[in-house]
Design brief:
Length: 125
């Protein structure tokens, strides 16, 4: 594909719709978690109570990851609106359709991401 065809209007519309759908799902999950955690269950057995608390802790960790993903989704939608979506933040090269299909919130090309991960592995955060 030519650079001029990359991230054309149809592709941007596709990814924006996909990201908005993902955002809607993440917000729905957050709302369900809030409702679920508001339900007060009084269980006299300490083991059952501990199980319920562990399930709540796991659910909260999952929602925390989803909250971070939601922030990335919103940044990606903003990048589409600004005309910057699909281009590597480090190199300015195309990220690539296959990578964006796999991870629509990607901001780095595969090579740039691999370099960043190698640097983190070698030098730490």
């Amino acid at each position: 594909m030519d650079d001029k065809d990359y991230m054309n209007e149809a592709q941007l519309a596709f990814f924006k719709a996909r990201l908005e759908h993902l955002r809607k799902d993440l917000q729905k999950n957050a709302d369900e978690t809030t409702e679920h955690l508001r339900e007060t269950v009084l269980v006299p057995d300490p083991a059952d109570r501990a199980t319920i608390e562990e399930e709540h802790a796991l659910e909260l960790r999952t929602r925390d990851r989803e909250r971070k993903l939601l922030k990335k989704v919103e940044q990606s939608i903003a990048a589409i609106d600004a005309g910057d979506y699909g281009w590597c933040e480090e190199t300015g090269e195309p990220i690539g359709i296959p990578r964006l299909l796999a991870r629509p919130t990607a901001t780095l090309s595969l090579e740039a991401q691999q370099r960043r991960e190698l640097k983190q592995k070698l030098y730490g955060d």
